[in-house]
Amino acid sequence: MSAISTDAAWRAVDTEKASLDLMVGTRFLSLDVGLTLQPGRAQSRSCDLDDNWADPLLGLCGRYEVTDAWFLTAAADLGGFGGSSDESWQAAATVGYQLGVHWSAQAGWRSMEVRKEIRGQFVEVDLNKPVLATACEFRLKLRVKKTWPCFSGLC
Q1: What's the sign of the alpha-carbon dihedral 148, 151, 154, 155?
Q2: Domains of the chain, start order
Q3: Could you read off the pLDDT of 2-57 as tens digits, one per residue?
Q4: Segment 65-74, tens digit of pLDDT
Q5: How far apart are CA 3 and CA 120, in angstroms?
């Protein structure tokens, strides 16, 4: 199984040491499973399932700055919502090191579960494993100027 998630985030909390982002995005998934049973004298049976799909997702990501270079993150998201999967979710916690202004390296643990029907077969995949990642972060700052209502062309 392969999964790639892309998201856009809005920073809901931003302090000197901690931040919390609200995320919306898409998880692209690819599954290719093959199973063959060979029970001795009985006839063998095989089952192959493969599919590619995308799910919308909503999530949260928190970050705590331990030092100028080291940080901790925790993230979780839910997917599906009428997309291709019946349900999907993931959660991860990492320790990271800031390599530069935009780049960081992270190591931690990730759990992910996906439930989907493929060609009439219900498939549930549970993944729990260590994760190593590099991340590139860039921010787009939008400024909103507050304006007063304009009456009769006086503005």
Answers
A1: positive
A2: 2-33+48-136 (2.40.160.40)
A3: 888 888 889 999 999 999 999 999 989 888 877 787 777 777 778 788 888 888 99
A4: 999 999 999 9
A5: 22
pTM exceeds 0.85 for this model:
no
DSSP bridge partners of 60 = 22, 76
C-alpha pair distances (Å), 94 with each of 7, 122, 134: 18, 32, 11
Q: Are 60 and 20 in contact (CB under 8 A)?
A: yes
Neighbours of 118 (CB within 10 A): 14
